[in-house]
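Pilot study result, target chain (156 residues):
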Amino acid sequence: MTLYHTSLMPIDTPDTRHSRTNLDFGKGFYLTPLREQAVRYAGRFANRRKEAWLNIYELCEEWRDWNVKTCSGYNEEWLDFVTDCRLGKDTGDYDMVVGGVANDNVFETVDLYFSGAMTKERALQRLAFEHPNIQYCIRSEQMLRDCLTFKEAIKL
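Predicted structure:
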């Protein structure tokens, strides 16, 4: 499976050490199978007058044999998991987490819930109308080395 990661530079040897903490699925290397999503994300760099690179990788077929958590939509499981990750709580020893991206609309709902300004029930009602854009977060260095192969980097 081909996956994409947008960055300020080519990343031929990805790692989790450079990841920020308290992200949607915790500290890890984030990718998407949606090329257009990755290219759209690159606009953030262009807005800051920075170079943007589209890094392309191949994920091995055996990735499903690893300890992978899959969230199948913007549901209560996803919301609880994202909330715990953002709070820095232990969310399990997963090698990879697969699920929806908190885009602008979703991010607003999660933030309102996270701050206590919205109930979980109301947040879940709002999230039910959103169609998830999938992201893959590889959280283990071993899985990065064994399952992800760098193919090329394209300057956008």
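One observation from the pilot: The two ends are 22 Å apart (CA to CA). A full batch analysis is planned for the follow-on phase.
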